[in-house]
Structure formats: C-alpha cells, structure tokens
C-alpha cells in the first residue's frame, strides 16, 4: 500500500522553484522580487545579474532553478517563459544576544525569507 501521488501545485504550462532559507528580511527580498514580476526570464536574469541589491544573488539562483525545472522536468520552451509569480514570505528568525553596558544585553534578530518563483510558458501573440 503506497501513498497516492500528490497533484501538481502549479498549472500544466508552469514550473516552480522555492528558496526556503534566504538570509535577509522579507521586505528587502520583496523589493528585488518586484523587479522581475511579469518579465520574460531572459530580461529577469539580466536585471538580477546587474542589480546592486545583495538579495539579487539569491533571487537569481532561485530563478535559474525555476528555468531548469521548466526545461528538464516539464519540457517547456525556455525562450517563451515569463515570470508569472514571485512571492516572498517569512521563514525562521535566529535570535542572538549582544552584550551592552552595565551588565545588560539586547536581542539581535537575524531573519530568513522564502522566495517562490513560478515561470509560465507564454504563447507568442
């Protein structure tokens, strides 16, 4: 008795990639994700490659993974792919302490974020 196959989380002409633990706040990552939403994947890769934001490096890796998933797992045409969705959420937060004057300490929060990128094959119009 085996477990039934789970249904696909995206459509037939779509591929998905998720970066689960990207070091940095969700607010900063969302600024980078907004740059690539609804863009062709070639343009999105160039935008991320030449962006001055530090979060663009991790976002580019997730986008490259989504493109590879579309090509290898779902047999989609890479030239016709568009970033259909780039959503950002919170992940874990590491808690650290810093010593302060007079025997006190303060809390330091080091957040992690999640990035979910869906690429869709667009028909040429």
Automatic annotation (TrEMBL):
SUPFAM superfamilies: Ribosomal protein L22
Alphabetical list of InterPro entries matching this protein: Ribosomal_uL22, Ribosomal_uL22_bac/chlpt-type, Ribosomal_uL22_bac/org-type, Ribosomal_uL22_sf
Top-level taxon of origin: Bacteria
Gene Ontology, cellular component aspect: ribosome
Keyword Ribosomal protein: yes
Keywords: Ribonucleoprotein, Ribosomal protein, RNA-binding, rRNA-binding
The keyword Flavoprotein appears for this protein: no
Biological role stated in the UniProt entry: The globular domain of the protein is located near the polypeptide exit tunnel on the outside of the subunit, while an extended beta-hairpin is found that lines the wall of the exit tunnel in the center of the 70S ribosome. This protein binds specifically to 23S rRNA; its binding is stimulated by other ribosomal proteins, e.g., L4, L17, and L20. It is important during the early stages of 50S assembly. It makes multiple contacts with different domains of the 23S rRNA in the assembled 50S subunit and ribosome.
Protein family per UniProt: Belongs to the universal ribosomal protein uL22 family.
Quaternary context: Part of the 50S ribosomal subunit.
NCBIfam families cross-referenced by the UniProt entry: rplV_bact
Record protein name field: Large ribosomal subunit protein uL22
